[in-house]
Design goal:
Oligomer: heterodimer
Order of helices and strands of chain B: EHEHEEEHEHHHHHH
Radius of gyration of chain B: 20 Å
Strand content of chain A: 5-15%
Shape of chain A: elongated
Helix content of chain B: 40-55%
Distance between the termini of chain B: 50 Å
Largest interface: A-B, 10 and 12 residues
Structural class of chain B: mainly alpha
Strand content of chain B: 5-15%
Helix content of chain A: 40-55%
Radius of gyration of chain A: 21 Å
Number of helices of chain B: 9
Number of helices of chain A: 12
Strand order of the largest sheet of chain B: 1-2-3
Structural class of chain A: alpha/beta
Distance between the termini of chain A: 55 Å
Number of strands of chain B: 6
Chain lengths: 296, 236
């Protein structure tokens, strides 16, 4: 099966490069300078999305939003112009489940199957072990599983189309909540005179442990970076998770407060700042500086 | 009759039962009037201990103005034994014409906390929604006028917003005092098993305002907090 990749920016580029370690890859991106870099590294360039769709059996997409996915597929010069029955589109965007289901239904009419396969855990740089969270018809999923395995063996199948996106968004929402509750509770400890160094170990060994606390508490005292994720993307993911909550009638109160905190951070610090900046918002609200409470 | 106004419930207790405190000179029949932003449960416990000495404790906290005219009377809520409260009414009316009897001891403090929390949380919620409207392009004057005609009407829409639009001060109620009141209210609600979700978010934002604007901050500073959080300007 010939494989192509559309959208080779930060995330898509990293995933495409992983694939290129085991197979030839055709790539397309609306930004020529990014394509040039990929070609220097061994990729074959496609002049447009339609050409890529004609040449390849499996077309992978990683773009900023599901709206862009729709444009890439159905817009002028898009994949749909040349997609023929039997081909498979794998969407690695962090997207909206309902929007993805609508796109998949549209593709089905062309005899094309869609799989959603967003990734999680890549912001810490470990693409080789990144989690790939999949949804879509099982038969098509089994067909592309070996390709996904070339990216990472850490693959989870969650059922029907859109479920991969839903599971990924839920995971991101939990991570966002972990982060904010960690900052908020660390601020209480600091105001009580407990240093972050003293706080880290008991939390690590007790029921308060979570993935956020483990990385964040030891880093807070020295203002060390814990992630590489821009604020506007963090808010986008939470908004999508809240939209799912809306659609299915889940209250999502805590996650909504976390969304507000992220939005405040964007408004006060700027949309392109790193997610770690939320710490500054919470320390200002708490009247302290974490770096003055590091301890040893 | 002795009036007390202490910053915290434990200081009220100290003023009465501490070394050299009031209790040393209190004789049966005397009346203590607690005007602090107190903790109703602590006040009830104190009243019980004082009753053993045949001293009556009543609570008579004072709430802020509805309007912005500081010469208008504040509201006094009073609770405790009805006959004693009635006897004291003329004295309390010396502070304000608006005196409300609320029932058993501690009730007035509860009503005071409920009123203050409602005022403060509504203020922040209203400012937040108006900041959203402002980002959308609506003027503060328009929002104030329309909201005050409808079911969203409250003190912030009716009195605060038009004054803000005119560049006037709307409150000199100290921010640290309001943050303290909200903390007391949350403690009470948590002890009594009330959910208090919306109130707690409001409390957090007041606490953040208190840190940001310091000792001399007043309730008008919540406008600056909301503006900063929403990245907009409510004044212009």
């Amino acid at each position: 099966m010939k494989v192509g990749y559309v959208g080779v920016g930060t995330m898509g580029g990293a995933l495409a490069r992983r694939l290129m370690q085991s197979r030839p890859l055709m790539v397309f991106d609306s930004r020529p300078e990014i394509v040039e870099q990929m070609v220097r590294d061994g990729a074959t360039p496609a002049p447009d999305a339609a050409t890529l769709a004609r040449e390849c059996d499996v077309i992978m997409v990683c773009v900023p939003t599901s709206a862009v996915v729709r444009r890439v597929i159905f817009g002028p010069g898009g994949l749909a112009d040349t997609l023929s029955p039997g081909k498979i589109v794998i969407d690695q965007t962090t997207g909206s489940p309902s929007e993805t289901r609508a796109i998949a239904a549209h593709l089905e009419k062309l005899g094309v199957t869609m799989i959603d396969a967003p990734v999680s855990g890549g912001t810490r740089g470990a693409v080789a072990t990144i989690a790939i969270i999949c949804g879509g018809p099982q038969e098509a999923f089994e067909k592309v599983r070996p390709i996904l395995r070339e990216i990472s063996p850490n693959i989870v199948y969650c059922g029907g189309i859109g479920n991969g996106h839903a599971a990924k968004l839920v995971q991101n929402a939990v991570a966002g909540c972990n982060r904010v509750i960690t900052y908020e509770c660390a601020a209480v400890a600091c105001r009580c005179g407990v240093t972050l160094a003293e706080l880290a170990e008991p939390i690590r060994q007790s029921s308060g442990w979570n993935g956020g606390a483990e990385r964040i508490i030891p880093a807070l005292g020295t203002d060390r970076q814990t992630t590489d994720f821009r604020m506007f993307l963090a808010v986008k993911d939470l908004r999508l998770a809240l939209e799912i909550g809306d659609e299915v009638g889940a209250p999502m109160m805590v996650a909504n407060i976390v969304r507000s905190m992220f939005q405040i951070c964007i408004n006060q610090k700027g949309p392109t700042k790193n997610l770690d900046e939320v710490a500054y918002v919470i320390e200002e609200m708490s009247g302290l500086k974490f770096t003055e409470h590091g301890g040893v | 009759v002795i009036f007390l106004n202490q910053p915290t419930a434990s200081e009220t207790r100290e003023a009465i039962f501490g070394i050299g405190g009031l209790a040393e000179g209190l004789s049966p029949g005397k009346i203590l009037v607690d005007q602090s932003d107190g903790d109703p449960d602590a006040t009830r416990a104190l009243a019980g201990e004082l009753a053993a000495k045949s001293v009556t404790l009543i609570d008579a906290p004072v709430s802020g103005h509805y309007g912005c005219d500081t010469t208008s009377p504040e509201t006094i809520m009073v609770s405790g034994p009805a006959d004693i409260c009635e006897k004291l009414r003329p004295v309390l009316q010396g502070f304000s014409a608006k005196v409300f009897y609320c029932g058993e001891i501690g009730n007035a403090q509860v009503v005071h906390l409920v009123n203050s929390a409602m005022s403060a949380v509504t203020q922040i919620a209203t400012l937040e929604v108006m900041a959203m409207g402002k980002k959308f392009g609506l003027s503060l004057e328009t929002m104030a006028e329309v909201v005050s005609l409808g079911s969203g009407r409250n003190r912030t829409s009716e009195i605060m917003a038009p004054r803000l639009a005119a560049g006037q001060k709307t409150s000199d109620f100290p921010l640290p005092r309001m943050a303290n009141i909200l903390n007391l209210f949350m403690q009470l609600g948590t002890r009594r098993g009330a959910s208090m979700i919306a109130t707690n978010v409001g409390r957090g934002l007041l606490q953040a305002s208190a840190h940001r604007f310091g000792e001399n901050g007043d309730m008008d500073d919540t406008v600056h907090l909301v503006e900063s959080m929403a990245n907009t300007n409510l004044h212009r």
